Amino acid sequence: MDNAPAHPDVETLRAENITCIFMPPNTTAILQPMDQGGIESMKRRYIKQLLSKLRFEGDDDEEEAACSIVQFWKALTLKDCVYMINEAWESVLEHSLKRSWLKLMPYLENVDQSNDSSSVTVTKLNRCLRYPFNRCPRATIKRTFETNSRLWKCEEDGVSS
After folding, report:
1. Is residue 42 located within the same domain as residue 94?
2. Under a CB-based contact definition with an 8 Å cutoff, are residues 48 and 125 in contact?
3. How far is the CA of 136 from the CAs of 23, 63, 70, 153, in angstroms?
4. CA-to-CA distance for 29 and 157, rounded, in angstroms?
5. Which PANTHER family does UniProt cross-reference here (predicted)?
6. 118-128: pLDDT as tens digits
7. Distance CA 42, CA 116 (A)
8. Secondary structure of residue 13 in the 3-state scheme
9. How far is residue 41's CA from residue 53's CA, in Å, rounded to a whole number?
10. Distance (Å, rounded) from C-alpha 113 to C-alpha 102?
């Protein structure tokens, strides 16, 4: 078990036929390869879907554009997010998942390690972000990210609150 704060202590998990041990620090990426490959790919695909939904047409007025973004976030439901996460996970290719396991299982070396041509890159995400946010006043964007900064903070062991 890693040292994520959500995990109970070893004493709580003690049983006759179960032994619980902590993994050494800083080994999560090696011992939990899905964090590095499959889940990262799924997150990028989810963000791309989210930003695609955020795109809007026609608002030339910066104030109207900012209002549209606020309305989008208010209208977005948990159900919408769950469906987008499912779609993102379903679109992760099998060979991408296999590549995730190479550090832990090197005998899988013959798996194609080339880049997934359909993968979502940071550059593509930046392009998606440019359109809606270049039409908003910078102060509005800054205020939104500052207000929700705790929602954006991620750590190796998961999302912190």
Report:
1. yes
2. yes
3. 45, 7, 11, 23
4. 10
5. PROTEIN PDC2, TRANSPOSON
6. 455 556 555 55
7. 13
8. coil
9. 19
10. 10
Dihedral sign from CA coordinates of 53, 55, 57, 59: positive
Residue in the block written with tokens 């955020």: 54
Mark which of 91, 108, 125 sits at the end of a domain: 108
Number of residues that this document lists for the chain? 161
- Tokens standing for residue 14: 């003690």
On whether both 40 and 97 belong to a single domain, the answer is: yes
| Token pair recorded at residue 19 | 């032994």
Q: What are phi and psi of 19, to 5 degrees?
A: -115, 125
- pLDDT tens string 78-113: 999 999 999 999 998 887 777 777 766 665 565 454
Residue 49 structural domain: 33-108
> Which parts of the chain fold into alpha helices (H)?
28-31, 38-54, 62-75, 78-90, 94-100, 122-133, 138-147, 149-152
The strand pairing partners of 15, in sequence order, are: 18
Q: How confident is the model at residue 74 (pLDDT cuts 50, 70, 90)?
A: confident
